[in-house]
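Page 47, continued from p. 46.
Same chain as before, 535 aa.
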Amino acid sequence: MSSIKTELEQQIKRRRTFAIISHPDAGKTTLTEKLLLYGGAINLAGSVKSRKASRHAVSDWMDIEKQRGISVTSSVMQFEYKHFCINILDTPGHQDFSEDTYRTLVAADSAVMLIDGAKGVEPQTIKLFHVCRMRQIPIFTFINKLDRAIKNPFDLMQEIEDVLGIRSCPLNWPVGTDGDFKGVYNRRLKQIELFSGGNHGQTVVESSKGAVDDPVFRDLLGEPYYSRLVEEIELLDEAGDNFDLNEVSAGNLTPIFFGSAMTNFGVEPFFEDFLNMAPPPAERTFTDVTATPYCDNFLGFIFKIQANMNPNHRDRIAFMRICSGKFKRGMEVYTSHSDKPVRLSQPQHLMAQDREIVQEAWPGDIVGLFDPGIFHIGDTLSSAKPVPRFGGIPMFPAEHFVRVSAKDTMKRKQFLKGIRQLSEEGAVQVFKQLDIGIEEFIVGAVGVLQFEVLEYRLRNEYNVELRLVKLPHKFARWLAADNIDVYSLNLTSSTILAEDKSGNIVLLFENQWSIDWAKDKNKDIQLSELSLNRN
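Result:
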């Protein structure tokens, strides 16, 4: 076996690429930061709860995220931990940014599902869980916020199984209750692990470990905590599901861990077990080919584009997931939408706004590529022709629409540039009404908070104040054929004729009745919820 092949196999086996999913405010960004803390990527954890403090979560790089204390865009972070190379995809929890989250999950090999112990399984968690199940990726559950009063752990287990339809197996069990969280019982090692220190979650915690029947731990816990723990361990051993890694890999069983991301209690034991159980980079399906990580041919796909990560340079970064082969700085690749080779001369690893030039990377890695406007979400990059297409990037029809124009007509150039660049990130969809000549656009989004982000970023990154007018329209439908005289269509007076950024004709409807009218009055019309991307 060649040394290159051996190195490829070694690098693949030690990589873990995963996303963290949850409902808003379950502590997802906090947990992400604590994993960075334990991995040595940062020295002091900042709290997203202190919105006016000088420190903010490392993964929240955008000013609006620091001010609001929420994540509005996916972050990608890579760091080393022991012999592992870790790629974390920290995603927005708020449902208004779910499209960005869904796309990011395509780049993950596994997912950590974070659950607020006091609230249990929440609506956005359910949606993201089902996306993971559709992709058949393993799901590991971390029940958070044990520094506060939580639901009964057995009730939480039952809720996960009843609501999400997946069996669960706790690999540790909380010691202490109702905010008095002392540690966990490690079921695999059959030992108690008590935590202390951590400087209120800013630094790593200390732990003391010992057997359940050790008198020292019996005295440390005291009654009734010790007796309760012994009873619960016996009940778990008798009635709980057995751990089976094959069932976890198949998505039929989720391992459960308990802890507190805020205080760091239980974070390190979870991290250790997760990394040993989570899968290395998996194969990806392209048109006419299944790319295993061990293929010599380099293959990757673009799942995210982000403009102005560095406001001083007004740059644009395309995030690429490597699927197979070795990546080298300066290599030439072909894209799925162009026959011209592209030299990848400025690849970067990112830690929020901090960047490091990448000399080489391997399957499972996420690499940021400098993008002068040549990449699109869903593009395949390949070292050889023909370039297969990657069809796994989901696209969702907008449900909210506003009419957008610049308040100052002198800022026309900045306005057009900002609208174009932000639409190419995929967070909003931009349409031009056919029968209006003035320079204004209709912007569609999955969630209304995207409009607030759009307004904020146009103001702060492009120095443009926007005029937004909310529209009553709820549905966008594309014409499935391009040989129709759109001006002869019989439509309701409120239906808007527009074109998307690719020049495809789209109809915007206020309600389902208007859609039914269009179908009834125009016998040959065929409408699609998704753009056919003919251009």
